[in-house]
Amino acid sequence: MTAATKKMASGHASPELRNRKPANDTIAFTEKGREVDKRLDKHETYEFGGPIGVTAMMTGFPMLMYYLWICLWFYDGQIVHPTSISDIQPFLNRMWAHVRDDASPTAYTFGLYTALIVFQLFLAFTMPGYEQEGLPVPSLNYKTLKYNCNALASFYATLLTMYGLHTTHIFRLTEIIDNFGSLMTVAMIYGFAVSFGIYFLTILFGEPMRMSGNFAYDVFMGACLNPRIGNVDLKMWAEVRIPWVLLFLIAVSGGCKQYETYGYVTPNMAFMILATGLYINACAKGEECIPQTWDMFHEKWGFMVIFWNFAGVPFTYCYSIIYMASHDPSKYRFSTPAYFALYGTLLTAYYIFDTSMSQKSRFRQQMQGTYQARWTFPQLPWGTLSEPKYIQTEHGNRLLISGWWAFARKPNYAADWVQSLTWGLVVGTASPIPYFYSLFFITVLVHRCGRDFERCAIKYGKDWEAYCRIVKWRFIPGVY
Ligand code: NDP
């Protein structure tokens, strides 16, 4: 086989990859690959509309969150707007009055949110975990970082603690829904404080990377790639332990609220408890797959990631829960077949999301020689490919073309999006606001997919073109 044909050949990983792979068969980065990696670690072009775009987002996100919450909570879940030019000022006054009177931070809500952060940090430092080696980091001269994956033990500890606090009446879970507006403001304050704090700390004491030189843009995108306290990776900790834990607690809070009000929990609320529970459990039981995701190896820890983790995810993805906790169940009652369809769609989408993520992450671990089976619950069939086919790139990396990855280049995005859609469908047509998550998320995913493919096209050149010819579709075969 000539060098050229060897380079383009798709290969099979041997079956013994299911266990630890011998180091001499692992990926090796070529000189050319290292050059491209260096280029990708420099700022070249502005994304997200540059300084103006990111400033608009930093001011727009909080305003949008307040607006949607006000519509949901105080206007029966309907979109409200000024009815004439002269109504603009009174309308804005009404909105501001809600923020001031119903969403001001209090010592109580500040204490609650802080307690969650401190508790989750404490668990991250103390709970037993599984050690996973991350991908080689080009900016650290291809050194790999170790991740102590103890999110699952921490999640179980959180569940037990919350159960204890709720049943002993020390902290009733309904308090989360009852103090929603104020907690949301505290979360936003944390989002801003951590983003700016970590930016200045990195500039003063760290190693800023991929900097543009524009202050607003660099705060938004972040300055550091791998912020750590001891062995705790703050970016990975914040991606799982705050947003998805809190979102699950909000769903349970909604269930408790319904139980206290009506004496039962609706199938719709139970659906959201299941959906958010599956999501946090997936992140925790497969935490060792997270170092292989784009957020970990490429995205810096800036406002975009921090604000969304501390405030955006928990306080906007929960709109259907808030609606159901504050509205009569007759507004969103379905027929039995409709419930079967809804639950069936969620479970199917979840299955594809979970297994496509694990197929790719475990493939990358196999190629790196760091894969070891981890028996967390549940392990789904087809989660690990035994003889994956791949394209060997000139860069050194290998691109998977088996499993779900034979059908589309982002099967995980498509499945994740369908899950988000069901989180809105659960209220039917009662309110448009719970559909915010799926609308926002499709925009994020399409944009992120474009950014990722642009980067991969630079990184892999002709090999990427070959890959796109083999795997033609982006999200769903025959559709997009
Ligand atoms: P991917 O899992 O698609 O990772 C992209 C990277 O994987 C690429 O940059 C490339 O990296 C590598 N890659 C791409 N294709 C292949 C292949 N065929 N074989 C091997 N490696 C490949 O994206 P994300 O990390 O962005 O997604 C993680 C999950 O998180 C998604 O399911 C997404 O939906 C979810 N998510 C959810 C959010 C939410 O708010 N609910 C927000 C953001 C993400 P390299 O250059 O190293 O080859």
From TrEMBL:
Protein topology in the membrane: Multi-pass membrane protein
EC number(s) given by UniProt: 1.3.1.71
Keywords: Endoplasmic reticulum, Lipid biosynthesis, Lipid metabolism, Membrane, NADP, Oxidoreductase, Steroid biosynthesis, Steroid metabolism, Sterol biosynthesis, Sterol metabolism, Transmembrane, Transmembrane helix
EC primary class: oxidoreductase
Major localization listed first in the record, in broad terms: endoplasmic reticulum
GO cellular component entries: endoplasmic reticulum membrane
Keyword Endoplasmic reticulum in record: yes
Origin: domain of life: Eukaryota
Pathway the protein acts in: Steroid metabolism; ergosterol biosynthesis
UniProt-listed GO biological process terms: ergosterol biosynthetic process
Example of a GO MF term: Delta24(24-1) sterol reductase activity
Record localization: Endoplasmic reticulum membrane
Pfam family membership, one: ERG4_ERG24
InterPro entries per record: ERG24_DHCR-like, Sterol_reductase_CS
Segments passing through the bilayer: 48-75, 110-130, 151-171, 183-205, 236-255, 301-322, 334-353
Positions of the UniProt region annotated as Disordered: 1-25
UniProt keyword Transmembrane helix, yes or no: yes
Reaction it catalyzes: ergosterol + NADP(+) = ergosta-5,7,22,24(28)-tetraen-3beta-ol + NADPH + H(+)
Similarity remark: Belongs to the ERG4/ERG24 family.
Descriptive protein name: Delta(24(24(1)))-sterol reductase
The species this protein was found in: Botryobasidium botryosum (strain FD-172 SS1)
